[in-house]
Design brief:
Layout (H helix, E strand, L loop, with lengths): L1 H12 L7 E2 L4 E3 L5 E10 L12 H13 L15 E9 L8 E8 L10 E8 L5 E8 L1 E2 L2 E4 L4 E4 L4 E10 L13 E5 L4 H15 L4 E5 L2 E4 L8 H8 L3 E2 L6 E5 L4 E4 L4 E2 L2 E5 L3 E6 L2 E3 L11 E3 L2 E6 L5 E5 L5 H10 L4 H13 L3 E2 L1 E4 L1
Parallel strand pairs: 16-26
Antiparallel strand pairs: 1-15, 2-12, 3-4, 3-6, 4-5, 5-11, 6-7, 7-11, 8-11, 9-10, 12-14, 13-14, 16-17, 18-25, 19-24, 20-23, 21-22
Helix pairs in contact: 1-5
Length: about 375
């Protein structure tokens, strides 16, 4: 496995460290944004995996109100169905969507339902921060994961209590925003950087003329047509496909849960030495029962402890010395040569950063 990783990283090392990307992929237009929506609803049709009424009384109340609106009165009835679950429905309303457009939604159980597999979301209004309804969601829930139970055990894979409905909400209200009212475009960099902002300014001025773009700060570039004959839509169309080489800070991203380590191409380290080894201690308890002889009057049955303790130092600790300004490829190859696994690599990189020899930001997930 380590050889495969090294070979793959070697292939990546032959690629250019930076590549030109489209301007639309690294900036947002100020004022052009989406809006978050949220709603409370019910999922029905579950196969006995819904909310328990005793633990989720709000589910019974919401379901009773739903049936009353449909002309069914169940007041005073003993409601014990496990085929209904209360859920929170979330969605993002993209910019410039119009009435009748459809958007994706996410459905998440809030009660003690064990699974939303096979459920159907009943019509749920979705509201924004201003309290207005902007969309209505309904449809079959696509839940990922698996929940299996038997008499003496159960197993769960993934999160069957969360699902999605592609194109499950229909837009009922538009956000009041007209692009044509913008006097100038203001580009907001997704990853603010002075060098990237200056490169964007230079690329836009090359095609629109000097003074068309001005970098205000590392995260903002002001753009306007020097001739004044381009509408905001035409101005965006003229610049959004420009190729710019973004500059990024050197980063090492570590996911401690999965043991994944991603190192950026600009990561360098100074000279240091590292030693790495394993210490494994195993303790096994196998007690046995000592019983008295048959027909013994004073004998007692006792449990006698039996402990087996072993210490394994694993492979011998190794010491490696790393020279100045080592590249990413050299670092990974050297650590793999020491037999370092992903978990050990995380500890080593953290220690190198603490020693001041790793010149990159460490991002922990």
């Amino acid at each position: 496995m380590r050889l495969v990783i090294v070979a793959f990283l070697f292939f990546l090392g032959m690629l250019p460290a930076h590549a030109d990307v489209r301007l639309k992929d690294i900036v947002d237009i100020e004022g052009v944004r989406g809006n978050d929506l949220v709603g409370y609803g019910l999922v029905v049709g579950l196969n006995g995996t819904g909310d328990g009424i005793k633990n989720s009384p709000y589910t019974e109340e919401a379901f009773s109100n739903l049936l009353e609106r449909l002309g069914v009165n169940i007041q005073g009835e003993d409601f014990k169905s496990r085929n209904v679950a209360a859920v929170i429905v979330t969605a993002a309303l993209p910019p410039f969507v119009r009435n009748g457009s459809q958007i994706d939604v996410t459905v998440s159980a809030i009660g003690d339902a064990s699974s939303l597999l096979g459920g159907q979301l009943i019509m749920t209004p979705l509201k924004a921060g201003d309290g207005q309804i902007y969309a209505v969601a309904q449809g079959p829930v696509l839940a990922s994961g698996l929940n299996a139970k038997a008499a003496g055990a159960s197993v769960t894979f993934g999160a069957p209590t969360t699902g999605s409905i592609p194109q499950g909400a229909r837009v009922e209200r538009e956000v009041d925003f007209e692009l044509s009212t913008l006097g100038a475009l203001r580009l907001a960099l997704k990853s603010p950087d002075v060098t990237t902002a200056m490169r964007i300014e230079s690329a836009i001025n090359t095609i629109l003329g000097p003074g068309s773009a001005v970098a205000l700060d590392p995260g903002t570039v002001d753009v306007r047509s020097s001739s004044g004959n381009l509408s905001p839509v035409r101005l965006i169309s003229a610049i959004e496909n420009l190729r710019v080489e973004p500059e990024q800070r050197a980063r090492v991203v570590i996911d401690q849960k999965s043991g994944t380590v991603v190192l950026g191409a600009d990561v360098t380290i100074s000279r240091f030495a590292v030693t790495q080894g394993n210490l494994k201690i195993t303790v096994r308890e196998t007690p046995y029962v000592s019983q008295p002889n048959p027909f013994s009057r004073n004998g007692e049955t006792i449990i006698v402890p039996n402990t087996d303790l072993t210490v394994d130092t694993g492979r011998e600790a190794r010491i490696g010395v790393v020279d100045e300004n080592v590249s990413l490829m050299d670092l990974v190859q050297g650590l793999n040569a020491l037999g370092v696994g992903p978990r050990e690599l995380i500890d080593i990189l953290t220690a190198i950063k603490a020693a001041g020899a790793l010149h990159a930001d460490i991002v922990l997930l």
